[in-house]
Amino acid sequence: MATHIKKTKTASSNKPKLSSNQRRFQSLSQKIAAQRELIASWKNAFNQYEATILTELNPLVTVLISHKEKMLKLLDNFYSTAKFTKRQREQLADLILHVCEQLIVDHERDDLKVLYNKYSGMDFDEMLEKSNMEGINLA
Known about the structure:
Layout: H1 11-14, H2 20-81, H3 86-107, H4 113-120, H5 124-134
Helix pairs in contact: 2-3, 3-4
């Protein structure tokens, strides 16, 4: 008996053969789709981190600024009441100036300019203007 084997068409044989440009186009289209998915996941992650910053980090920064302001008041009081050597006074004044400058520039605490002016010997706004003219960045 002769056996007859029937050839069945597979799904791949039903597809027409693609040219190299068509295959390249499909490959690039798939890469674009993958990149779009990646962008969407990055946007989602960004939104989650932004929400975390607003709910967790910003209140902590506010507390930190408040503590720094209290520290400045204590250092100012300590500077005028305690007995220090000239070098210690200079170091304390430098610390006060550094923290004041940071809060004024980074957190727009203009109320601390008076304290800054007290220890710097010059007006903060004049110093800022002078540094801007010289191209020095305080931030």
